[in-house]
Specification:
The complex is a heterodimer of chains A (219) and B (446). In chain A, 81% of the residues lie in helices and 0% in strands. With 219 residues, chain A is mainly alpha-helical. Chain A has a single domain, classed as Fumarate Reductase Cytochrome B subunit (Up-down Bundle), CATH 1.20.950. Chain B is α/β, with parallel strands linked by helices and 446 residues long. Chain B contains 20 helices and eight strands. In chain B, the strands form two sheets. In chain B, strands 2-1-3-4 form a four-stranded parallel β-sheet. Chain B has a four-stranded parallel β-sheet with strand order 6-5-7-8, with helices on both faces. In chain B, helix 11 packs across helix 20. Classes of the chains: A mainly alpha (219), B alpha/beta (446). The interface between A and B is large, with 53 and 52 residues.
């Protein structure tokens, strides 16, 4: 048992981090390679200026008309995505682990703040899940897979939250937290979570077609 | 299972679709679907499929969704789900009933207006996906009858409406004769080598809107332009094959068009007020011929009128006084950003203008474009139902005159106005310009 815990707390963390980083990187390289082989002409319409113009416009909260039409969903989604990165990276206990293993450290979020923000992430995921059931057009598009995706993100946050508060089965919670976190990292490049890298690409392409070829805005 | 998941059983209304379906075998169906989805696409298509998070932000973009009380089946992503996703899931092994529904979704429930890619946070091009479905339908030979007939006409005559060569020339000469009532020395110069401008129209103009050619000739003549029109096939800039997924014929049309202009050795091509024809020559046809951009500059009428007015080649005698509003056609606003130029022309020619909301890139499609109206009378009632949001948008302006610088929009909007009793008159920008311009010939320095 100790060997198993040692493995998931040690090498497995690095393995999953590598799968996450290199998985996305390889995916990116394959996309570019395939575009070059099969649809090279797409690249001739892409410009850095119009790609960035479109991506930036879509990063400004409530700037695109689409985001103003569904402000609650968009607002929750915007905060959720920021927290998804900020929380794990700036969590005190994560930084302590980094410090122990790599001698690297950076400023941490206040534990109380992190606690509230974790709750916010959990609530956002509950909101997404409810929205998938309640909003008719979204429900029509939703399959079991979409609920599974929500669950995969939910698990590390819920287990982390419970482990921090040490309400019950502390050790088991930590194990579940580490495992679900690693699973999430591993699954990202192979699931629709890879929109982490594909979304900027599709946005950049559409932004270029709209901006460079069609002289129009796409937000 | 809720009511939304219930599969719609599509009625067998279109003879061409039905006969096409009868001929199909399940092997042929999966072979074509897999060929198109895997061989004719690449990383872009895969990224579109993999990136969609099923968030539903695209729903609000679609006038079909808005017109049908937010029926989930009309959300853009739902159209992709009911076609592409299922084809991928089933590896092309889909039923004929599924295909009948797919033809209907791609040809009659989507104007490929690309408004949804402005509402999707990831910019997924759902119009491209619907055009892929149409490509599959084309290869399976189950394209709706009326639009297929226009493609057949293109293939045989290189114009959309079976206009014969003598009819074409005859019509131009007839309009030239009429035009001489305005200016006695007016000409419609045919095949003039080295002219500055080749003026190009869509086939419905000679077929039943010949007056538009007359107006254009008067404007050209008054502005003192060195222009010409081709007498040979290649004069028609429309391209219905682009909307049926018949890329081969679409390429032939574009090649004939540009070769005609090249043979005449013109500096640029000016085209009448048509949106899809502009999309074909400015954005699509050139790509099929491996030109990044059009090999000869293509100028839409909006740009051209703007140029004539700002250069002082055309002056306005008296502004149009009725209350006007402007409809931004997808293919020239979202497709070319000409909406502000169109507004400047309206400001120069009309005294009472009211905006339609939403407008510019965000304007709602007329509901006729993208080949939908070309699927013909069997689908008109349904089209009117699907255009309710547009009718409400038009009614809210309270305008007497609706300016629509696009042929497809023009026809579609007239249907809407008639069906919803809106009491509006639809005009082209050229109509307004023709009515308000000074009928004198431009001479530099005067």
């Amino acid at each position: 048992m100790n060997a198993f815990i040692g493995f998931i707390m040690g090498p497995m963390v690095w393995i999953s981090a590598m799968i996450f980083i290199f998985g996305l990187l390889i995916k990116f390289i394959f996309i570019i390679k395939e575009v070059r082989e099969k649809e090279q002409y797409l690249l001739s319409y892409m410009t850095v200026r119009h790609s960035l113009r479109s991506i930036c416009a879509w990063l400004i909260p409530f700037y695109p008309r689409s985001t103003r039409l569904r402000p609650v969903y968009y607002g929750v989604s915007y905060l959720f995505h920021i927290l998804l990165f900020v929380l794990p990276v700036f969590l005190f206990s994560h930084i302590v682990l980094m410090d122990q293993s790599l001698n690297l450290s950076w400023p941490a979020l206040h534990d109380g703040a992190a606690d509230i923000l974790t709750l916010a992430v959990i609530l956002a995921l509950v909101f997404f899940s409810l929205r998938r059931r309640l909003e008719p057009d979204v429900r029509f598009l939703t399959s079991v897979k979409d609920h599974l995706l929500i669950l995969m993100v939910l698990l590390p946050f819920v287990t982390g939250f419970l482990a921090y508060h040490q309400v019950f089965l502390y050790e088991w919670m930590v194990i579940a937290h580490v495992l679900s976190g690693e699973f999430l990292l591993i699954i990202i490049p192979f699931s629709r979570f890879s929109h982490m890298i594909t979304a900027p690409l599709t946005r950049a392409y559409t932004g270029s077609e709209f901006g460079h070829v069609r002289h129009a805005k796409d937000w | 299972m809720n009511e939304n998941d219930a599969e719609i059983i599509e009625e067998a209304t279109d003879e061409a679709v039905e006969k096409g379906l009868e001929r199909l075998t399940s092997e042929r169906i999966s072979e074509v679907i897999n060929q198109v989805l895997h061989k004719e696409t690449g990383a872009r298509f895969k990224a579109y499929v993999d990136t969609c998070m099923r968030c539903g932000l695209c729903s609000d973009a679609c006038s079909y969704f808005l017109s049908n009380d937010r029926d989930p089946r009309f959300s853009p992503a739902a159209k992709v789900k009911q076609t592409i996703w299922e084809m991928l899931d089933k590896k092309g092994k889909v039923s004929k009933d599924f295909l009948r529904r797919a033809v209907h979704i791609a040809h009659l429930e989507c104007n490929v207006c690309r408004r949804c890619s402005m509402y999707c946070p990831f910019g997924i091009d759902m119009a491209y996906m619907m055009l892929l479905v149409r490509r599959i339908c084309h290869k399976l030979e189950i394209t709706p009858q009326y639009i297929q007939d226009t493609v057949n006409s293109h293939s045989v005559t290189m114009n959309q409406m079976w206009v014969k060569e003598d009819e074409w020339i005859d019509t131009l000469q007839w309009q030239e004769e009429d035009g001489r009532e305005e200016f006695e020395d007016l000409r419609i110069p045919l095949d003039k080598q080295g002219a500055d401008i080749m003026y190009s129209v869509i086939a419905p103009e000679p077929k039943f809107q010949a007056g538009l050619i007359y107006q254009a000739a008067v404007i050209m003549h008054a502005a003192g332009m060195n222009w010409t029109m081709p007498s040979r096939p290649g004069w028609d800039n429309s391209n219905m094959a682009m909307f049926t997924g018949d890329n081969e014929i679409s390429g032939r049309i574009a090649r004939t068009f540009f070769e005609t202009a090249a043979k005449l050795n013109v500096k640029r091509i000016v085209m009448g007020e048509c949106g899809h024809a502009f999309r074909s020559t400015y954005d699509v046809g050139n790509r099929q011929l491996a030109w990044t951009m059009a090999p000869i500059e293509v100028v839409h009428a909006i740009e051209f009128y703007h140029e004539l007015l700002t250069a002082g080649r055309i002056t306005i005698k008296e502004k149009f006084s009725k209350k006007v509003t402007l409809h931004d056609p997808c293919n020239v606003s979202r497709g070319r950003g000409l909406h502000d130029m169109a507004r400047k022309i309206v400001a120069m020619t009309c005294s009472d203008f009211v905006e339609m909301t939403p407008n510019r890139e965000h304007n709602l499609c007329c509901g006729a474009g993208g080949g939908v109206i070309n699927c013909g009378p069997p689908y008109k009632k349904e089209r009117m139902r699907n255009n309710r949001a547009k009718a409400e948008q038009l009614a809210a302006t309270g305008a007497e005159v609706l300016i629509a610088p696009c042929h497809n929009c023009h026809s579609g909007l007239e249907d809407i106005i008639h069906h919803y009793n809106l009491n509006m008159e639809v005009k082209f920008l050229g109509d307004v310009l023709f009515e308000t311009m000074e009928k004198k010939i431009y001479r530099p320095g005067e």
